[in-house]
From TrEMBL:
The chain holds residues 1 to 253 of 417 of the full protein. Residues 1-251 form the EAL domain. This is EAL domain, c-di-GMP-specific phosphodiesterase class I (Or its enzymatically inactive variant). One of its GO terms (molecular function) is cyclic-guanylate-specific phosphodiesterase activity. Transmembrane segments: none annotated.
Amino acid sequence: MLAKLSDLIRALEDDEIVPYFQPIVDLRSGALRGYEVLARWMHPHDGLILPMNFIGVAEDNGLIGELTNQVLRKAFKETRELGLTPRLAVNISPRQMRYTSLPLQIRNSAEEQGFPLDKLTIEITESALIGNIEQATQIANALKDLGCRLSLDDFGTGYSSLAHLQALPFDQLKIDRSFVASIATRRESRKIVAAILGLGHSLDLVNLAEGVEEDAQAEILLRLGCELAQGWRYGKPMPSQAMPHAEAAEPHS
Ligand code: C2E
Ligand code: CA
Ligand code: CA
Ligand code: CA
């Protein structure tokens, strides 16, 4: 159910929006390469609430900057308190790619919590770039100057334009779950993923397949040359206390 604005404002004040961490692994070896940070709302009465119920509300009411900041800070703080410095990938809303203060905000949060910016990956979706390519490029370059990596999220859905891949300094390409879901059952999906991987490789991007649930999917992705994977097969999003106490190795570069 969609969150009420007043409830969300209260939740942000009461620290109820927290980061969960989903493992990202090397497809070949299975080694941990980092985590994607995903927001969760721990509601005192309703329990755990998923982002689809509150991210849009935050975006529509000017709260997404504050929400992102809180999630980011807590992710840095919680991993530091565990003695871990894994690579972390965070989601930035399309709307945030219109604020030139974004890189500074991210730098401040990282410095405050002692998190190294070269271990941070920023995931942006293509819709962030629509009608906004100049400003988005400026922000993307500033993020790169801080040492962050840039990942193009949900690639292949909705707004795909190859011009975006050319305009922004991406390091990584995330193949949308919708293609992965049918990769073992549909020849078309397999061919599309093969084509995306070919494109990614020729542009020197690291490819990450999201939503990998089954062995058969992982085997096909490996055979097609995909480097990284994320999905229930490797681990669901979890609170920091559940993270394995081994340091994530340096990721693919
Ligand atoms: P996303 O960035 O595409 O994140 C991946 C989503 O796929 C997550 O959903 C994750 O839990 C889910 N997922 C991962 N592996 C599997 C799998 O094997 N099978 C299936 N069926 N699902 C899998 P989640 O956590 O519900 O997040 C949904 C979306 O909300 C995210 O999609 C992202 O766009 C947005 N979001 C989440 N956290 C934040 C945040 O802190 N800030 C912003 N701006 N957006 C966020
Ligand atoms: Ca993402
Ligand atoms: Ca995604
Ligand atoms: Ca998605």
